[in-house]
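Complex record, two chains
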Amino acid sequence: MSEENVIYVGTKEVMNYVLAVTTQFNEGSEEVLLKARGRAINRAVDTAEIVRNRFLTDLDILDITTGTEEFEREEGGTSNVSTITIKLGKSD
Amino acid sequence: MSEENVIYVGTKEVMNYVLAVTTQFNEGSEEVLLKARGRAINRAVDTAEIVRNRFLTDLDILDITTGTEEFEREEGGTSNVSTITIKLGKSD
């Protein structure tokens, strides 16, 4: 994609992210990336499903990838957290 | 896949599912499907990431799909829940 349209899904209520995605597309974006880590992963999936089922039904999930990130724990040492990236766009 | 090798990820500790997947492959399965709904979705992603990073490093995530299921609430009416299916297998 020419510009990075990335929405980071965190701990807010899911409809905040649904609105953010819908706004991005309504402002002319061709694709939007939803990114989340750890427990927010299911909220990213919820966001994608709600957007394409209820708001922008011509959208599709073009790609989903997962990964692992290492982070430093407050008490020392490192832990791993899973990540997800969901690419939403118009299906041809 | 010729036989259905489906592991349903629920509320148990993630290592239970990691062990289940690893066992399936060690017993000769070519592909395994991880399925989860709602809050268990991030645990399914954790399972896939841990298996391929730490236990069976020749495995890859071949496909990830999401969906929406309707269920009946105890107090009446219906709600929607997001689902995920992660296909693990050997990359060619």
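Note: Strands of chain A lie at 6-8, 31-37, 59-72, 78-90.
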